[in-house]
Task: structure prediction
Amino acid sequence: MDWLETQWRARPWWMNIIFAFCLYMTFIYMPFDFLVKPLYLPISAAEEVWFGITLHGWAAKVTEPLHWIIYGALAYGFWTMHPRMWPWAGVYCAQIMIAMLVWNLLDPRGGGWVAGLIAAAFFAIPTVALLRARDRFQGQEASTAEPA
Result:
């Protein structure tokens, strides 16, 4: 339990939520999406969203490993609090913010301008927080970090 508490204290609570999400995507969702989904869904049902544009079928399946690599790199970066995480974690979050707006405008399932602006505003919060957190990324592994 001490190790877990040390991990929790190594970064602010909001960054721990992002870190937990990256761990979930790296170790649970992306392996399921890439390795299990093809077994019970046709490839034509595969979807991946890049920059707000939805890819379908083989285009989606081929790009899935890139998402897996990105989430893995983010998880590792948050775990070690690597200095290179700044500004790239914030830049990736800004890309998601823009993609949420674009997706809501272009995809038939999107909600239009209002939904896009609400989603973008939601992702603006962690984007700004990450871009302002330069001093948090000092390159210490969480296991040796001082409590915040």
Observations:
- Residues 2-136 form one domain.
- The chain has a mean pLDDT of 91.
- The longest helix spans residues 13-40.
